[in-house]
């Protein structure tokens, strides 16, 4: 693979201790493959997340709202974030 895209609902301190993103990023780093994480929200230490091997983080939350308010918007926000990610990849890979 030239690029790995992974994700989870919230990237936080638990992510640093072995959730999916950490496992994927660790394996990809050993192979020199960049990792993009698509997450609902980020809480915590971004430098530590990058040290795991994550190249970039894209969040789906477009507004800082409580979970119950953002939940009905999640599908549309995920679509918008993935469209942004594709635009970015197309620009970089020209």
Count of helix runs = 5
Oligomeric assembly: single chain
CATH class equals: Alpha Beta
CATH topology: Rossmann fold
Number of strands: 3
**Percent range for β-strand residues:** 15-25%
Q: Which architecture would the CATH scheme give at its second level?
A: 3-Layer(aba) Sandwich
Secondary-structure-based class equals: alpha/beta
Comma- or semicolon-separated keywords:
94 residues, alpha/beta, Rossmann fold, 3-stranded parallel beta sheet, 5 helices, 3 strands, flat
Descriptive overview:
This protein is of the alpha/beta class and 94 residues long. It has a single domain (4-92), classed as Rossmann fold (3-Layer(aba) Sandwich). It has helices at residues 13-16, 20-31, 46-51, 67-70, 74-92, and strands spanning 4-11, 35-42, 56-59. The protein has a 3-stranded parallel beta sheet. Strand 2 (35-42), helix 3 and strand 3 (56-59) form a beta-alpha-beta unit. The longest helix is centred in the last third of the chain and has 19 residues, at 74-92. The radius of gyration is 13 Å and the shape is flat. The mean pLDDT is 86.
Topology:
Elements: E1 4-11, H1 13-16, H2 20-31, E2 35-42, H3 46-51, E3 56-59, H4 67-70, H5 74-92
Parallel strand pairs: 1-2, 2-3
Sum this structure up briefly.
With 94 residues, the protein is an alpha/beta fold. It has five helices and three strands. The protein has a three-stranded parallel beta sheet.
């Amino acid at each position: 693979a030239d690029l790995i895209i992974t994700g989870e609902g919230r990237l936080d301190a638990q992510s640093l201790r072995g959730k999916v993103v950490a496992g994927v990023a660790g394996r990809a780093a050993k192979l020199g493959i960049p990792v993009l994480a698509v997450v609902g929200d980020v809480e915590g230490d971004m430098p530590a997340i990058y040290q795991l091997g994550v190249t970039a983080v894209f969040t789906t939350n477009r507004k800082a709202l409580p979970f119950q308010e953002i939940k009905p918007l999640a599908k549309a926000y995920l679509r918008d974030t993935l469209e942004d990610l594709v635009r970015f990849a197309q620009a970089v890979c020209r």
